[in-house]
Amino acid sequence: MEPLGAKLRKQRRRLGLTLDELAGRVSISKPYLSLIETGRVPNPPSDEKLRRLEQTLGFGVGELVTQAHLQRTPQDVRAVLGKLLERKKGRGTPLVEGEVDDLSGILRELVDRSGQGAERIMGNAVPVINRASAGYPKDFMDLSYPTRVADQYVGCPEISDKDAFAARVHGDSMTPKYREGDIVIFAPSLAARNGDDCFVRFADGQTTFKRIFFETDGESPVVRLQPRNEKYRPMVVKSQEVAGMYRAAFRYQRVDGE
Predict the structure, then answer these.
(1) pLDDT, tens digit only, all 258 positions of the chain
(2) Fold annotation for 125-252
(3) β partners of residue 207
(4) Which residues pair with 217 in a beta bridge?
């Protein structure tokens, strides 16, 4: 199977579209599209984004979504499906008539079983998706991070937000409250308020971790991003440059070295 990113890039070039043009048509940031095409995202984009790409690039309905679902499928489930497909193609013991009427249905059932088992084990586990830059903004992967497939999780029973995510602090601009290496859990369901510590996502796909203050520059609304470390200066950005602000809810901090 051709990698998802390579397939997208080939079709985009075939249609004569630049990354900027495609990003504008599907409302996905150019940096994130580039990461997808070059295979530097750990997991496929959300179904919603894939459907927009299907429609814009002329893929069949569900073509990219189906491939992404297969990519997210646990390895043991893929192995079972592979054996069934081999038998259907005549390589190995042939399938008994009526044994497999719909391989996709079997796959869906296996995935559901696997997912339910993982959910029971993991409970309110929150995916650690990247570093939260407490210095300069860094590329952000995607808020629609596929459930149960992150490289690392932290348990947080008090979090009920299904879209909650965690990130490691990088840099020292949020000291003394946050130190480098701390894991902070952010809850998109919580409204961001003046003075809150937030994971801020910019329209161009970059991010930073700062205290936020809603202000005005003349008549234009702006957001002041204030470091907690007094040696760093605040950054003021126009409100339209901010794509999202996600409030910090919990913090995991190392106790050694104090």
Answers:
(1) 688 999 999 999 999 999 999 999 998 888 888 888 988 877 788 888 999 999 999 999 888 988 888 777 666 666 666 666 665 556 555 544 444 444 555 555 555 554 444 333 344 677 777 655 444 344 344 444 444 445 567 777 677 787 888 888 888 999 999 998 899 999 888 999 999 999 998 887 788 899 999 999 888 999 999 999 999 999 999 999 998 899 999 998 777 654
(2) Umud Fragment, subunit A (2.10.109)
(3) 138, 201
(4) 220
How buried is residue 141: exposed, middle or buried, by Cβ count under 10 Å (0-12/13-18/19+)? buried
Q: pTM, whole model, 2 decimals? A: 0.52
Contact (Cβ atoms closer than 8 angstroms) between residue 129 and residue 138: no
> What residue spans of the chain are helical by DSSP H?
4-14, 19-26, 30-37, 47-57, 63-72, 75-88, 103-122
Q: Which CATH number fits domain 4-72: 3.40.50.11690, 1.10.150.390, 3.90.70.10, 1.10.260.40?
A: 1.10.260.40
Domain residue ranges in the chain: 4-72, 75-122, 125-252
Q: Residue 158 contacts by C-beta under 8 Å, 6 or more apart in sequence?
A: 124, 250
